[in-house]
Amino acid sequence: MSDYLSVTKLTKYLKLKFDRDPYLERVYLTGQVSNFRKRPTHQYFSLKDEGAVIQATMWAGTYKKLGFDLEEGMKVNVIGRVQIYEPSGSYSIIIEKAEPDGVGALALQFEQLKKNLAEQGYFDDRHKQSLPQFVQKVGVVTSPSGAVIRDIITTISRRFPGVEILLFPTKVQGEGSAQEIVANIAKANTRDDLDLLIVGRGGGSIEDLWSFNEEIVVQAIFESALPIISSVGHETDVTLADFVADKRAATPTAAAELATPVTKSDIISWINERENRAFQANLRLLKHKAEQLTKLSQSVIFRQPQRLYDAYLQKIDRLNTSLITEMKDRIVQNKAEQIHLQHRLESTNLTATIDRHKDHLKIIRHLLSSDIKKQLDSKLARFEKAQDALLSLDTKRIIARGYALVNKDDKVLASVKEIKKGDHLAIRMRDGQLEVEVNHVNQKNI
User: Fold this and answer.
1) Cα(232)–Cα(237) distance, rounded to whole angstroms?
2) What was the pLDDT predicted at 308?
3) What percent of the chain stands above pLDDT 70?
């Protein structure tokens, strides 16, 4: 039996072999992602080809730095180390680095992020702002030492010398550049003297331009209240900032031309044209008004103005006649009503009616006097009864009948339970008051 190994010992031996094998410490492997389901932390999946499958693990820190999302069926090139997992006796590869096979990681990350942002509506035309036709002040977010700002200044100065240019010096490449771009876009939006903003940089590789593909930069451009023109890289270069900006310019010169869509000479020509059109319009209006005036001055109303009020005079006569007739009718009607009321008054015996009301008033006064007397007698009786009850509770009367009041600290005592030996008491009697000290307290039920 000593020749037999335990499963644990065999597995430990194999693990030791794997760990010490220099060829397994750093393995370069190509395979297709299988059984992938994105997890909150570490990623567990398989890599396979036509003939075999190997389990793969990627720790959370590695996956976070990957730059793109793994997808089911994606072919990748990975670097890692092979190890044995003792409890199950299975072997797997711990991936330390990965990139898509046949396409760069940044290119894949660009496409994935572009798709995600497009689905959220960041690139929809309905969110894009129109550029102002005339600008007075333009902000530029770019490097102060690059050719971008020089091209913009040259173009705007040539096309529209009166426009001011405000530079926001910005790092446009490398670590921290995306955060600086976002900060300067936010800073520009705090000003109320800017008409629009140009955001851009010169050409370069996808790595050089990557700051303008960062999601925070896209978000800042999307949320900007100022219209933004994006001018990143050369004409063939495309970034996510170009998709989300209100306008995309292929070059800094094109961005400056978009910012000033007309030149100074164009504006002067436009003003002259508007001035001529306004002059012609006023000339036509004056001619029309003159024709109207001539027509009106030759009308019958101006030649015989009394016709204007003939109809009103006739209406006044009709109303006057109608008013007089109505007043006469009212007077006759009121006189007839007066005679009728006078006849009714004469036929009524007022003396008998007054005498009848006097008798009724006398009866009511007698009843009222009698009722008041009864009420008064009743209230007096209740008052005397209440007065007697109050007097029976008067302490002076109680003391006068031979009783005494015992006080302790200006409080009337009702029980010996409130007294203890040594207390000083005041005993109030009919003809005076005693000050005593208690030597003994004897409690008994009475």
Assistant:
1) 7
2) 67
3) 94
At 4 the pLDDT is 82
SS3 content of the chain, % helix, strand, coil (to 5): 50, 20, 30
Q: How far apart are CA 125 and CA 138, in angstroms?
A: 23
Which residue(s) pair with 97 in the sheet? 79
Decide if 217 contacts 181 (C-beta within 8 A).
Answer: yes
131 C-beta neighbours (distance < 10 Å), count: 17
DSSP secondary structure code for residue 129 in this structure:
P
Q: Which among 408, 433, 404, 434 is positioned nearest to 421, based on CA atoms?
A: 408
Which pairs with CB-CB distance under 8 Å and at least 24 residues apart come from 174-177? Answer: 174/211, 177/211
Write down the pTM of the prediction: 0.47
Long-range contacts (CB closer than 8 Å, 24 or more residues apart) made by 44-50? 45/70, 47/76, 47/78, 47/93
Lowest mean pLDDT among 11-20, 370-379, 387-396: 387-396
Helices 147-159 + 252-259 axis angle, to 10 = 40
Please state at what angle helix 215-223 crosses helix 105-119, rounded to 10 degrees: 30
Please compute Rg for the chain using Cα positions: 56
Q: Which two tokens stand for residue 316?
A: 């006044």
DSSP H helical ranges for 393-413: 395-400
DSSP codes, 339-374: HHHHHHHHHS-HHHHHHHHHHHHHHHHHHHHHHHHH
DSSP string, 172-210: -SSTTHHHHHHHHHHHHHT-SS-SEEEEEE----TTTTG
